[in-house]
Amino acid sequence: MKSGFTLLAAGVVISLSLAGCGASGDAAGSSGDGSIEVQTGLAVDSKLLSTLKEVTNSFQQANPTVKINLVPNSTTYEKDMKVRLASGNVPDIWWTHGWSRDRYSKFLLPLQNEAWATNFNPALSDAMKDSTGAFYAMPIDTDIAGIIYNKDVLDKAGVSVGTIKTWGDFETAAAAVKAHGVTPITVSGKANGPAGNLTDWISPGAYTKDELAQLKNGTFVGDKYKTVLDLVAKWRDQGYFNPDYASAATTDMDQALAQGQAAFIFSQNNRINNALQYNPKANLGFMPIPSLTSGPSYLVGGEMNAYGISKTSAHTEDAKKYLAYLAEPANESKLAQSAGSAPGLTNATANMGAVQASYDQWMTQAKTTLVPYFDRVYLPNGMWNTMVTTTDSIITKQSSVDAALGQVESDFKSLYGQGK
Amino acid sequence: MAETLITKPSPLPATTPPHVARRRRRKGGLVNLLYMPALLLFAVFTVYPLINGVGLSFTNWDGYSPEKAMVGLANYTRLFSDDTFRMVLTNTVVYGLGSTLFQQVFGLGLAMALDRPLRGRNAARAVIYLPVLVSPVIMGTMYYLLFGYNNGAFNDVVTALGMDRVAWLSNSTAAIAIIVAVNTLQFVGISMIIYLAGLQSIPSEYYEASMLDGARGWKQFTNITLPLLQPAFATSIVLNLIGGLKLFDVIKVMTGGGPGYSTNSVSTLIGVVYFDNQSAGYASAMGVVLFLMIVLFTLVLNSLLNRHRLEA
Amino acid sequence: MHLSTNRLFNAMVGVVLLLAALIQLVPFYVAVTTAFKPIDDRSSQLVPPSALFFGNFLTALNQGNILRAVGNSVLITVISTVLVCLLGAMAAYPLARRLTSLNKTVSLVIVGLIMVPPLSILVPLYTMMNQLHAINSYWGEIAVMVTGHLPLAIFLYTAFMRSLPLSIEEAATVDGANTLQILFRIIFPVLKPVTATVIILSGVSIWNEFSLSGYLLAKPSVQTIAPAIGSFFSQQSSNLGAAAAASLIAVVPVLVAYLFLQKYFIKGMVAGAEK
């Protein structure tokens, strides 16, 4: 019996000394060991992360005194960042995932005076630059998104993408797909975002230029937003959404698209590459978004993979040097290519793989209008979550169009008031 | 010697006889120093952050910006008219009581089955306990895959039987039931072990004596087994109730709280309001109310357990 | 006749148990089939892989840093669990033996602490840990894990100690032993079974802890196993196969520890079950 206790006591002594060792090794916290901490926002096995590692290694060979620490992240990334910002333990560099201006700019260094800034892709200006022309992150890529489709499914239903010019055409196509026993549109309701994409994609086409300006100035143009929500409600009633909407995860969107269980998804183009992992033979592409008024179809463009530097970093000069290295055309090209999208700087080029054909068709040849993310530019900061939850409440029939519209309007007003 | 003390029911009463307690109390409170290290840890790593959290509940903080403003009791008054919060409170009680009920029923049933001299019962015990060892995130993810609409195993069976696929988790009532079931399956092993232990501590003479009186089966169960298992019930119920009321990971991976907000528990809703809605102040108020309710709950539970202790 | 109905009943019980065991194995079966199939395999989860595919395990080991995470988790779980047992047993002694109203209140507060929702303290706790330079340090994580798991341990130890007969302690007191001697010589040695219970409940929970550990140990070099598995699911992409493989690797150490402690475990639970 005594031996049991001796064992326990010995265990404690060993443990405490071990804990002490561990503590002394890392006592200074995340940035105290002199390395630059980069919150990559990327999955540990993602293609972009492995390219980033490669480029970072060559940077470190050229700059042996600078230590870069690349941190992969999980689905809790946004929460992690909020906790870090709240506590003052801010990483030196982090992934801004579309929010470099609206959410993070007060924590980030302005970068418009960097040498590479002259090559900043103008397609990103609306989404990333503030009213003074300052921007806060180095864009790896320019996200160009429309409606992603599975061509095999559309072919079987006798639908040709080229014929979809209006939402009426789109609905005809959806009905044909449904008649063939396939879900026309797959959306993930479990993830906090894809439902918002749906309305974010449709909304720019519901407003005229004047009305957009009114939104920017704090007047909520409700009757137009209602047309967007009505469209979603109509699709719900027609049964165009996946029956497992509420519990579907983003991986379910990828899989359904890849395996021909969905014809359309409204999402950033990185879903195409994800989907191809599940079925490399799938025939995927993207198409422009029809307008709700008589305007032309358009694509949505904005910030996706971009990295900003903390204002409070102890290594701002080295961090800038690092971003400048990433921004070198050869590196930027490599990074954009593994992200599968167009580069964020004009002096880089990328082969977008599966997305290339659609890109050539709509961007290079048809010169489709590119509009910024609706919520980032025309709605006050904080509205994104409202867009997600109200769209979700319509798809799940938790509230009526009018109730959802009322929610959007009241949040618009209170958030606009707070922001100004 | 130690083991004989434990496996045989002790001949002495469990509660300290009054005269001993009195003498010890007089002997001095120095022995209380023994819980000081624990209390110190609680003070620093739980109570202090908790008090800070209470402070946040009087602000309109968004959860990450440097600036915040005091809003008084606004967050608390908002809670009273918040239908979502009320719904989620009900869900939390359903998760807590539902899991607890099923875990007791199945846990006791399995324990009684495994108390019989069957071949392979050790293997069965280990297998039924196995899910306890796995993180709820992983367990939840595996069941999420099983219930998947397009590629889930359950729908593979359903379609093989010639029926239409079912969107299992898209109906909030069904989703809540499935979440309770998954939580029950994962932690039924704990109840099973507790009851198994309780059953093994009931002296077989009791059963033999009652057999002579002609009692068996159901009568033995209600007259001997149930009353003598009462302390086991207490431990098991407390553990399961805590688990059920704090349920978080399984909900997050299986439904994410949807459809709408309809399958959230208070814990998951706090996360949504704090991080997604960027209303950290309001989320903190929810946390405070949840904590107060749980304290109240604990008080009631404790007095019930104490009463039982006196009876026993 | 009595015997044959009994045998029939036993057979029925056996069938029910077999069914229960099979149900419990279903998620593990799916984890195994997922882990051994490549990502583009479209066969049903119920169908075993046509050929064993080890790519997911390689991804988990090479890119997911899983072995390093297992090492970190072992270190943190062992140290934290030892401390939980030691501090828990110490704290329980006065609470079990000295029933003043102060100590009754302390017991109650401790039970209340079991229920503090982790999210309500996350941001203040993280802020404090940052000021203490405890982020990404083992000691910070251990302190938080020990604090989080102590209340339940104290609860179990207190219940167990109350079930111990007083006679030996009485005798020892008469022989002139002081409280510490009683605690270390008489009480601690008989705590083995309940300690096994505390080790399994706290150990498993610390091993699998996700919500706080992901914040406190964010650097890959100090990351524990649950967040490491989580990093196969990012906002942009997910790798279920690798996550399943990593999960299977992660469960092996706990399973071994459990099988090792199993026989004490049931005895420890007797304690709580006894009056």
From TrEMBL, chain A:
<dbReference type="InterPro" id="IPR006059">
    <property type="entry name" value="SBP"/>
</dbReference>
<protein>
    <submittedName>
        <fullName>Binding protein MsmE</fullName>
    </submittedName>
</protein>
<keyword id="KW-0732">Signal</keyword>
<dbReference type="InterPro" id="IPR006061">
    <property type="entry name" value="SBP_1_CS"/>
</dbReference>
<comment type="similarity">
    <text>Belongs to the bacterial solute-binding protein 1 family.</text>
</comment>
<dbReference type="Pfam" id="PF01547">
    <property type="entry name" value="SBP_bac_1"/>
</dbReference>
<keyword id="KW-0564">Palmitate</keyword>
<keyword id="KW-1003">Cell membrane</keyword>
<keyword id="KW-0813">Transport</keyword>
<keyword id="KW-0472">Membrane</keyword>
<dbReference type="InterPro" id="IPR050490">
    <property type="entry name" value="Bact_solute-bd_prot1"/>
</dbReference>
<feature type="signal peptide">
    <location>
        <begin position="1"/>
        <end position="19"/>
    </location>
</feature>
<keyword id="KW-0449">Lipoprotein</keyword>
From TrEMBL, chain B:
<dbReference type="InterPro" id="IPR051393">
    <property type="entry name" value="ABC_transporter_permease"/>
</dbReference>
<feature type="transmembrane region" description="Helical">
    <location>
        <begin position="126"/>
        <end position="146"/>
    </location>
</feature>
<dbReference type="InterPro" id="IPR000515">
    <property type="entry name" value="MetI-like"/>
</dbReference>
<keyword id="KW-0812">Transmembrane</keyword>
<keyword id="KW-1003">Cell membrane</keyword>
<feature type="transmembrane region" description="Helical">
    <location>
        <begin position="93"/>
        <end position="114"/>
    </location>
</feature>
<dbReference type="Pfam" id="PF00528">
    <property type="entry name" value="BPD_transp_1"/>
</dbReference>
<keyword id="KW-1133">Transmembrane helix</keyword>
<comment type="similarity">
    <text>Belongs to the binding-protein-dependent transport system permease family.</text>
</comment>
<feature type="region of interest" description="Disordered">
    <location>
        <begin position="1"/>
        <end position="23"/>
    </location>
</feature>
<protein>
    <submittedName>
        <fullName>ABC transporter permease protein AmyD</fullName>
    </submittedName>
</protein>
<feature type="domain" description="ABC transmembrane type-1">
    <location>
        <begin position="89"/>
        <end position="301"/>
    </location>
</feature>
<keyword id="KW-0472">Membrane</keyword>
<keyword id="KW-0813">Transport</keyword>
<feature type="transmembrane region" description="Helical">
    <location>
        <begin position="220"/>
        <end position="242"/>
    </location>
</feature>
UniProtKB/TrEMBL annotation, chain C:
<feature type="transmembrane region" description="Helical">
    <location>
        <begin position="12"/>
        <end position="32"/>
    </location>
</feature>
<feature type="transmembrane region" description="Helical">
    <location>
        <begin position="138"/>
        <end position="161"/>
    </location>
</feature>
<keyword id="KW-0813">Transport</keyword>
<dbReference type="Pfam" id="PF00528">
    <property type="entry name" value="BPD_transp_1"/>
</dbReference>
<feature type="transmembrane region" description="Helical">
    <location>
        <begin position="74"/>
        <end position="93"/>
    </location>
</feature>
<feature type="transmembrane region" description="Helical">
    <location>
        <begin position="105"/>
        <end position="126"/>
    </location>
</feature>
<keyword id="KW-0472">Membrane</keyword>
<keyword id="KW-1003">Cell membrane</keyword>
<comment type="similarity">
    <text>Belongs to the binding-protein-dependent transport system permease family.</text>
</comment>
<dbReference type="InterPro" id="IPR000515">
    <property type="entry name" value="MetI-like"/>
</dbReference>
<feature type="transmembrane region" description="Helical">
    <location>
        <begin position="240"/>
        <end position="261"/>
    </location>
</feature>
<feature type="transmembrane region" description="Helical">
    <location>
        <begin position="182"/>
        <end position="207"/>
    </location>
</feature>
<dbReference type="InterPro" id="IPR035906">
    <property type="entry name" value="MetI-like_sf"/>
</dbReference>
<protein>
    <submittedName>
        <fullName>ABC transporter permease protein AmyC</fullName>
    </submittedName>
</protein>
<keyword id="KW-0812">Transmembrane</keyword>
